[in-house]
Amino acid sequence: MNRPIRLMAGFLAVLLFALLINITVIQVFQASNYRDHVGNQRNLLAEYGRERGPILVGNDPVARSVVTGNTLMYQRTYSQGPLLAPVTGFYSLVYGATGLERTENQVLTGRSDLFFVDRIQQLFAGRRPQGGAVTTTINDAAQLAAFNGLGTKVGAVVAIEPATGKILASVQSPSFDPNVLTSHDPTAIRAYYNTLLANPAKPLLNRPIVGLQPPGSTFKLVVTAAALASGQYTADSVLPGPAVYQLPNSTHLLHNWTGKACGPGSRVTLRQALAISCNTAFAWLGVQLGAPALQHQAELMGFNTGFAIPLHAATSVFPEQLDKPQTALSAIGQYDDRATALQMAMVAATIANHGVTMLPYLVQEIRGADLSILTTTQPKAFATAMTPANAAAETDMMVNVVQNGTASNARIPGIAVAGKTGTAQTGNSSPNVAWFVSFAPAQSPKVAVAVMVEDGGGTSEITGNGLAAPIAKAVMEAVLQGGSR
Amino acid sequence: MRQSNRRGTELMLLVFALVLVVLGMLQVGWATGTAIPTRLWVTMALLAALAAGMHMVVRLRATYADPILLPAATLLTGLGLVMIYRIDVANAQRAVHNNITPPTPDVYAQLTWFAIAAVLFVAVLILVRDHRRLQRYTFTFGLIGIVLLILPLAPVLGHTINGARLWVRLAVFSFQPGELAKIALTIFFAGYLVLKRDSLALVRTRVAGVGVPRVKDLGPILIAWLISLGVLVFQNDLGTSLLFFALFVSMLYIATGRRSWLIWGAVLFAVGSLASWALIPHVHERVTIWLNPFGYAADSGYQIVQSLYGFANGGLLGAGLGQGFPTLVPFANTDFITAAFGEELGLIGLMAMLMVYAIIVERGMRISVSVKDSFGQLLAAGLSISVAIQVFVIIGGVTRLIPLTGLTTPFLSYGGSSLVANWIIIALLLRISDRARRPHTQAPAMDDAMTQVVRRV
Question: Could you list the residue range(s) of the whole structural domain that residue A354 is in?
């Protein structure tokens, strides 16, 4: 009987191998296929079963996970809702994650390599990784001031600490409430998301960093920097500033927004041209400097580079290969010039920071689950865009803009404010964009701000001063009163 | 020189198995953030005490028995307790989240069943001093087996759970007699085939190289076939039906050494399968789901699909005990407990557990080869094969290798009948191996009593 028993044992071994091969196929070769199946709740449950780390503004957890009663154990809540939506983004069951929730996902879920030691401990303890915390550079007072200042207007505000590149405020209007998108009710999430998509003002657009608009007269700051850098011009150089300037090689006529000449005898100093935002003088100056010089100066200040802060900002554009009439229009921030509020805040911050452009950043610290600090972001220079002397000269010219020029609404008693207004035409039918960029205090700048209001209305520089400057002023005051944090 | 009886090895392996179980329990508590309740510590202590008690009885009553079987079965039972506890924890946590009363934990009930199994294990070793005594009661066991098999059909006692009528309920106590029927029938087959093997091995004619048995010799296999089909039709129990028939054909082949019986068995199996696929809606549905589970993921294929997702989530290394989602699979601590292990221990853990089963079956087959009497050979082989087939049918089912049938996973699944029956199988195998390995030379004085027993039989 032994031979049949041995043969039968062999047959049972074959059955065992069939099982082993089958589970190997399922657990190794088919595993990722099964994991991605629609209807496989495990990924979702794993994501939501883990306590995601908080996003902090100062010590305030503005995004955190709270325990729910249902199968998805944790739900994300945002204590400030729409105020910080452009910073935190959302973390949704249906639409995935945006903002810091997306870019810092590895940290918040505890899967970042920064937690290597923790993970080794967790591996041996057999515990799920705990999420780390992300501290932002946001200054809550500045953020709130910008948010209240924009109110119901469509626009964006970015404030930067010039010396470091820390983003102190990043605000948009209209915004959205991430709390609704992070609920566990897919129907409610979809309904709200579709409402947001249908809104022509695009509340889901991260306006401060991806909303591109012609920078208008605020671009004259770049042209001024290029003029000073050329060595051929100073603040006191006299430029032609007629009421109307015929573009080179063209019949196109460029008018000043006042409709008048910029000075007696149609002549004006560079300082005065900036103060009254003289289009004809800057168009002429741009043509004299040449497109390559303007492009070089713009790129040193961050144009034509995509920044990850770590949210991906849109690339602000100064076009290449311009002919002379295009150069003239580009010099006053029209034609194909496009800038985000972030970019224009960087221009102001560069001038404020003695000519050094700092890389903007939104994440101050990465902390462990116990909130111990694991890494602190070190400020990094992007480029040296101006000499300190030229930066000081331009600062002086910008202070003049506020004190004697178009930017009267940005004045803060007892503090020297440097600023520049702008109004950009976005097309024949669309309303104009009102801009204001500034920094303060002029001699030791703590904050640089760019305000962009899209439904600006009129064409005059008064628009920038009227709509945008008071918001910038409020943000600067908020930072200066609170001190740097 | 005195031959080593390997009892020390058994004890060492037993300690190793128990340490693994305790570590598993600790890991579940740690990973789920639950403190180990005192009651669970008591459970682990009782598990160890029962295992030690069984070891002592083996030492005294089956001195030369195989040293691997007891630790291997203890390890699987202990791992089963770990996973049942882990699923208890998940159910309790979910109940807390939903603000409902937590369900009664199953792990303590399973321990109680293990205690009963241990008592029966000891009883078998003490009462059955020589396995050949069982041969005297061949037809009694045959009758017991048939009665146990059809008991669930009895009007008052019988009980249908989840569509299969294979339960007997006495007061609060429900039991699957089919599990015990499996043992009784294996004893019956062994005794019967020892008697009839010579005539069944006779081959008069051959057709295309396949032996054709005499018509009157076809009787037994046809009866086994009809009973299997009866179980399927009347009790809706595909698994037991399959197990029963495969077991009989395997033992018939071993008894006679005629491969023609395997062929006839395969033919009858094919006919029976096709007929039941065509005629029994329940079987037809199982096959349909097997072929395309994802097409029925929301309803009838839900179990198997969730099971596959669980295995996939485990991957190579597993999610780790306490860190998967085994409760997403229905019947996570009974039929689908393998999916829970696959998810949390991964391919590596599951392979290790399959190897433990392989060791049990291999030891059983080895005992079968080494024992001298035909009845013992057939019984050891039959018991081992029944474990092997059961493991293949249920694990093959939950991993979609074959259509899903409801069978318990030996030693692991929550449920008393299965645990008790499988521990009786271990006791019988130990009894046979004790006989097989006992030295023929003059036994030491301490074994006098046993030697006498052997002589009397």
Answer: 210-364+378-482
